[in-house]
Amino acid sequence: VAPGQVNEVDILRNTHGSPAYTRFLDGLGRLIQVGGQHDVYVGGLEPDEDGNYAYAWWDDIGQMLFHTATLMPTHEFDPACNMKKRHIGNDLVRIVWNDSGVPYRFDTLVTEFQFVNIVIEPHSRGVIAAYSNNLHENEYFRVTVQSAEGMSGFTPIGDFKIASAAS
To answer: If exposure means fewest CB atoms within 10 Å of the residue's CB, which of 6, 14, 111, 127 is most exposed?
Structure first.
């Protein structure tokens, strides 16, 4: 979510994010090519149509692919971004990077499969992190978990937690 954005289509049309967002993505997993994958599950993404790259994480037991809106193409023939939403809208858990400066509303991206949002917002003060040789030194984030109405509490986060970028 870029600065000032609150609308679903504006958010889905993003093609890049802040430097902190990019560092966050790099920490989630490995950037893989979607086409020709035989060892990594590509989460239903089709090369070209849904983008050629995705972030994935795996170990000896499991795999996870992240549907990342900024890596998916924004097609001129799809002004409502339904091509992106068909993947992201079917994810039961969403990680939302919020650089908007306003609280992210649970119902910003409306779908039938909306159960949990993990909202991450930059929380560093001033320009402390900008003058460090370590990209993550003094870089902090506010992490909030939002859940659908009627879901019982399932995390130890409470209202929110502050986490370092290294964490």
So the answer is: 127
Shortest CA distance to 27 belongs to which of 55, 63, 67? 55
Write down how long the chain is: 167
CB neighbour list of residue 114: distance below 8 Å, 6 or more residues apart: 94, 106, 107, 148
pLDDT in 10s for each residue of the chain, 167 residues: 999 999 999 999 999 998 889 989 998 999 999 999 988 989 999 998 999 999 999 999 999 999 999 999 999 999 999 999 999 999 999 999 999 989 999 999 988 888 999 999 988 765 554 444 556 567 889 999 999 988 887 777 778 999 988 88
Amino acid at residue number 162: I
Rg (alpha carbons) of the chain, rounded to whole number = 16
Task: Supply the pTM of this predicted model.
Answer: 0.88
